[in-house]
């Protein structure tokens, strides 16, 4: 396939670009008028027929025009596409949108998904940091008022997460400080996932039930972890943007689309694939996800990190007919910016 002639690549690129722009099948005359290939319409037709035989183009109905297949889009993205450079003004707007919120992790990630959605006119998604993989640096308990305690988790990668618990008994700050000293000594350098497993095992261990301080500290930490991991999910913004794509004008396809977004675990699994790459943008097209619910959707995603530690992933979800040459650099720039913001001191 990588032996595709230069002319065939030019014709395939022209079909992809025009189809992305119009949403309609593309004919040889359209290519001849819009693109300077310096060949006749008849020659373009022959090349399009060859591309169809290779499975890179298809003829959706009796129309003379053709559209790229998933295989054709994959070849275009991997071998032909030239990403458009972001303009300086676009970069400034993205930077400004995230500049004032970076000290609050939840707000920062939510705003990032809005920025991606707004700039790309599709759905923007941001996966929370994989807290189970991050190592604990410090845990602290703070009494806010009677029966209300804040648990602060600080990880080695520099993430700070806090959870407010409503506790059945009133615990003074001196007692909470003892909890913190006790647990910091026991759980230091363990991942949050390992700590969670350790807590479950320790709470089953009868001899620890006789140590009242340890027992209470474990219960409080267990509740804090439950709240932390439940909230560490996914931000999605701009699903309604997808309605504007003609692909989803059919009611059944629209229903199928929103069913796909209802089960966040499927999208999380898609973004998890991004975390297998140390860096760079990954494009997953339709059926490549192996998820039936998402076969009509593509995702353009990239990991974000702090230092060398991969934290999570962000991306844009839309139809197969997306402007990849524009969206890829937006995702790439936003991931790099988010990574830089993660480096800044809390």
Major sheet: 5 strands, antiparallel
- Give the termini separation: 50 Å
Please give the radius of gyration in angstroms: 25 Å
Q: Would you identify the regions where 5 or more consecutive residues have pLDDT less than 50? A: none
Provide the domain count: 3
**Percent in helix:** 40-55%
How would you portray this structure in words?
With 346 residues, this protein is of the alpha+beta class. The protein has three domains: 6-80, Winged helix-like DNA-binding domain superfamily/Winged helix DNA-binding domain (Arc Repressor Mutant, subunit A), CATH 1.10.10.10; 88-130 and 233-343, GAF domain (Beta-Lactamase); 132-231, Heat-inducible transcription repressor hrca homolog, domain 3 (Enolase-like, domain 1, 2-Layer Sandwich). The chain is 49% helix and 18% strand. The chain has 13 helices and ten strands. It has helices spanning 6-22, 28-34, 41-53, 70-80, 88-99, 105-120, 173-187, 192-204, 206-209, 212-231, 251-262, 264-274, 324-343, and strands at 57-58, 67-68, 123-127, 136-145, 148-155, 160-166, 234-237, 282-285, 297-306, 309-319. The strands form three sheets. The chain has a five-stranded antiparallel sheet with strand order 7-3-10-9-8, with helices on both faces. Strands 4-5-6 form a three-stranded antiparallel sheet. Strand 4 (136-145) and strand 5 form a beta hairpin. Helix 1 (6-22) crosses helix 4, helix 2 (28-34) crosses helix 3 (41-53) and helix 5 crosses helix 13. The longest helix is centred in the middle third of the chain and has 20 residues, at 212-231. It is elongated and about 85 Å long. It starts with 5 loop residues before the first helix and ends with a helix. The model has no long low-confidence stretch (mean pLDDT 84).
